[in-house]
Design brief:
314 residues; mainly beta; Immunoglobulin-like; 5-stranded mixed β-sheet; 9% helix; elongated
Amino acid sequence: MLSSVVDRHRGWLLLVLLGVAAGLFGCGSGGGGSNGGGGGGNATLHGLILLASTSAPAPTSTFVDIGGVTGSARDSDGQFNLTGISASATLLTIRNVNGSGVEQFRRTLNVQLVAGQTNDLGVVYISDQGYTANISGRIVTQVNSVAQAVAGAKITLSGVKAISGVDGTFTMTGLPVGLGSLPGALLGSVTATGFEVKPIVSETLGPPLITGSNPIPDIIISTPVGSTPPPPYTVTGRVTVQGVAQAGVAVDLKAGATDLGSVMTDSGGNYFFWVVPATYTITASKSGFASKQTSVTLNRTDTPVTAASMNLVP
């Protein structure tokens, strides 16, 4: 029964999540944060409210308030639609009142509205266990079977937003305890330039979220099939050992004094990083050989750069 509820909403949710990052990115706490409202004018806000424990629609008498505009989620499917909201409004409150008049499931989110548009919040989960779950994770892609960090990816999870850092990592706070309880439930998405939208489902998180810290597995995103997208890297280069390409040479990437991590060269001596525009220092090292270093400046994520080749000698 619960699975059928999720399936009934899945198509609508996927369409919403495709546009959430562009239209409402900056909602929620953690990661991307809130940058304020969209200025003058009015906006429309649309979304779906589900229970974290079951992924069923929000219970009867669930209200949504923002900028002095109040509406309710439909009992049948949990959807809501608010119109005439000042685009400068930034605080969304979701509250439920049970049959005894007792308020429960209250949740607040920071949002950023765009005037003159329908802003899709996507799916938002509410919980009777509170909103004290935090997650930390990493967005990666696979290059020659090696995980490479993806910077600048936009993560949307139950109304909370984040952007991955140069090392692919991200954190989110204030998430519903119990999120991910129903197998297969759609919880959010990951979007990044040059990659397919990656749905986040319960299995993506691992066990249901608990109060406090919840490290989650790497989220792997992929380039589209049957198209010619930008390569899955923004910085590449080659390392040789005494003039011969060799796999397994460690290549470290830094931005200033910040170590962003390292990868190993493939059988052709090649290495790859997906990072945002900046100037980076690249160091190649192998036991028994002197380390070599070079620098590179990346100006655009859709125009990869190739660093100068490095040859290691004893």
